[in-house]
Design goal:
There is one protein chain. By secondary structure, the chain is an alpha/beta fold. It has a single domain, classed as Alpha-Beta Barrel (TIM Barrel), CATH 3.20.20. It is 40% helix and 20% strand. The chain contains 12 helices and 8 strands. It has helices at residues 3-7, 47-53, 56-72, 74-79, 90-96, 99-106, 120-124, 150-155, 165-173, 177-190, 203-209, 227-230; strands spanning 17-25, 31-40, 83-88, 111-115, 138-143, 160-163, 194-198, 216-218. Strands 1-2-3-4-5-6-7-8 form an 8-stranded mixed barrel, surrounded by 4 helices. The longest helix has 17 residues, at 56-72. The protein is globular.
Length: 237
């Protein structure tokens, strides 16, 4: 049996999960948001492969645990004006519409939700998003790869759009890649999308993006941290 087939049989007690937070910084260097990500120490597949194949029960368990961390540290996020993003897919979208979950989210003004690139029906049936509670903020993840393209932003207005890291790296290698990236960011910004660049891993990447109208950058240039480490940090407002 393949690893992906085994994933569908797992329950919460079968796996150890660490939740880590990747930081996003503004052009001025301020921490403006963090993305909650799952790390699996004893599973050999990537998180992307895991979430494409996991059963809905375990998917819900992981989401609820991330929501609990958001609730426990609500005051820190609000006091420091830092957003927290949690990734969702088709199934979790329906969970957000459940009354008890919607009531919890109402209190979490700092929490936003990133629509995963593999959420095919969510991206292709944008009107379904209108069933969400009014205070839910959706971000489009991985713009430039898979289903997350122009069609996705045409059907639903995402206030925040994250440029896929592979797409970013691809443009860096192209002769006119910087002009293309600048035109894309300008187009998105003029249409009221705040742009986050994923995949920033060194100072050269930062220099390449300088002067463009992006909202934030994110990547392994900055160390990912646990929630305990994050809330010990002093954030310059």
């Amino acid at each position: 049996m393949s690893n992906t087939m085994l994933i569908d049989t797992l329950s919460r007690g079968d796996i150890a999960i660490r939740y880590v937070y990747q930081k996003m910084f503004s052009p001025e260097g301020k921490l403006v948001a963090v993305e909650c990500l799952s790390r699996f120490d004893r599973i050999t597949v990537s998180p992307d492969v895991f979430f494409r194949n996991v059963n809905n029960s375990l998917r819900e368990d992981i989401f609820i645990e991330q929501l609990v961390q958001a609730e426990q540290h609500r005051d820190w996020f609000l006091d420091n004006a830092v957003f927290l993003t949690i990734n969702i897919d088709d199934h979790i979208l329906s969970l957000l519409q459940r009354h008890d979950i919607a009531k919890r989210i109402e209190r979490l003004e700092h929490v936003h939700f990133e629509v995963a690139e593999y959420s095919v029906s969510l991206l292709s049936r944008a009107p379904a998003n209108r069933l969400l509670p009014l205070n839910v903020s959706l971000w489009l993840d991985d713009f430039g790869s898979g289903h997350a393209g122009i069609g996705a932003i045409r059907g639903y207005h995402f206030n925040y759009v994250k440029i896929d890291k592979e797409f970013f790296w691809h443009l860096i290698e192209k002769e006119h890649g910087r002009q293309l990236m600048q035109a894309l960011i300008t187009f998105l910004s003029k249409n009221n999308h705040r742009v986050i660049i994923e995949g920033v891993e060194n100072e050269e990447h930062q220099r390449w993006l300088s002067g463009m109208e992006w909202f934030a950058m994110q990547g392994f240039y900055w160390q990912e941290v646990s929630i305990e480490q994050l809330v010990q940090e002093e954030v310059v407002i």
